[in-house]
Amino acid sequence: MNRSAGFLSRHRRRPLAGAVVLLFGLLVAGGAYTALSPTSSAGAAQSDEALIAQGRELFIAGCSFCHGVNGEGQTDVDDKLIGPNLVGVGAAAVDFQMGTGRMPLAAPGAQAPVKSGAYSDDEIAAIAAYVASLAPGPAIPSEADYSTEGMTAEEKEEAIVRGGQIFLTNCTACHNFTGAGGAMPWGGKAPRLLDTSPKHIYEAMLTGPQSMDTFSNGNLSPEAKRDVIAYIESMKEQPGYGGFSLGSVGPVGEGLWAWVGGIGVMVAFAVWIAAHTTRSSKTKGNKA
Ligand code: HEC
Ligand code: HEC
After folding, report:
1. pLDDT at residue 275, as a whole number
2. Confidence at residue 262, expressed as pLDDT on a 0 to 100 scale
3. How far is the CA of 225 from the centre of ligand 2 (A)?
4. How far is the CA of 175 from the centre of ligand 2 (A)?
5. Residue nearest to atom 43 of ligand 2 (CA)
6. Cβ(124) to ligand 1 under 6 A?
7. DSSP β-bridge partners for residue 189
């Protein structure tokens, strides 16, 4: 005992011994990890089930009050809908609604406000997995679906031009030419798009929140969606074409400025002229 301890401490002082001990430790830890971590597909399936079970629990606690215990939707005593049916809306809808902080809705109202999320990303993933397990629906897009990374500068330029055309025909009616947003009937609004992440833009097109149209992959191909995102991203980078943007809200805002600024100056000038003519005619009158 004593002799072996003496042997170890004697040898540990050698510089090489430290490296050997470290290597040994790494081998043991690595071996244990390989042996214990679940690598088979059975293990993955089981963790999927666990994720769905966790998502169901979170859903019952935070969402079932409005959406029903099984996501079937819920009406109040007057038969008014307090939360729509979520069967078939897919993981993408949950990821969009929770990722932008629209859900959970605090109280039924005209339009779910965008706020910072009360749930962690893992919890959102669990709830999304649960809702996706109810019925097939659009999945959460992967980065490859919406990213323009890996394109050459020329390809990216072309994508932006194509995306701009698609944006003009499909999105400007509600979101304005510059993506600044606009008013919708019944007190709603189409939000500004320049603060939204590419993933959430993709999901918004895929799931059509509230009164927005749904641009399914059949209507608008995944490539076309990516082009639209490339265009919106390019608008984010452009500070504007010079001059006063007047808030970039389009003809109504510009008209208002023309009215207040342009006509205001003319009215002020007319008043000034009128004031001066009266005074001069008064003086004339006094003299006569
Ligand atoms: C106070 C009631 C309420 C609560 C709580 C609530 N929701 Fe909602 N939810 C609504 C209403 C109302 C709508 C429809 C309005 C809209 O789309 O803006 C909606 C819409 C949705 C949609 C969009 C459906 C579609 O067709 O695209 C999803 C997804 C969703 N909710 C998920 C959730 C999740 C997940 C939770 C829990 C974390 C939750 N909601 C909590 C009321 C609620
Ligand atoms: C009929 C009007 C309409 C059209 C057309 C429309 N949208 Fe929307 N969009 C809306 C409304 C309304 C909302 C807000 C929904 C909500 O708050 O639940 C919205 C929300 C969004 C959002 C979420 C923004 C955020 O961060 O809150 C994005 C992104 C978006 N739209 C992109 C698009 C794109 C891209 C197109 C064209 C392919 C498009 N929309 C076409 C009405 C429209």
Report:
1. 82
2. 76
3. 13
4. 7
5. 212
6. no
7. 183
**Statement: residue 1 has pLDDT above 80:** no
Cβ of 164 below 6 Å from ligand 2: no
| CA 89/CA 101 separation, integer angstroms | 17
Residue count of the chain, please give it.
288
- Across 54-58, 71-75, 111-115, 178-182, least confident range: 111-115
SS3 call for 11: helix
Binned at pLDDT 50, 70 and 90, residue 29 comes out as low
> In degrees, to the nearest 5, what angle opens at C-alpha 195 toward C-alphas 198 and 124?
60
Report d(CA 200, CA 222) in Å as an integer.
14
For the record, the structure tokens of 46 come out as 């089981």
Quick check: pTM over 0.90?
Answer: no
Neighbour tally for 61: CB within 10 Å:
10
- Ligand 1: distance of its center to the CA of 104 in Å? 6
Q: Which domains does the chain have, with CATH numbers?
A: 46-134 (1.10.760.10), 143-239 (1.10.760.10)
- Cα(99) to centroid(ligand 1), Å: 12
Per-residue pLDDT band at 156 (split at 50, 70, 90): very high
Ligand number with the minimum distance to the CA of 88: 1
Q: What angle do CA 89, 90, 94 make, to 5 degrees?
A: 90
- Kindly report the three-state secondary structure assignment for every residue of 165-197: HHHHHHCHHHHCCCCCCEECCCCCEECCCCCCC
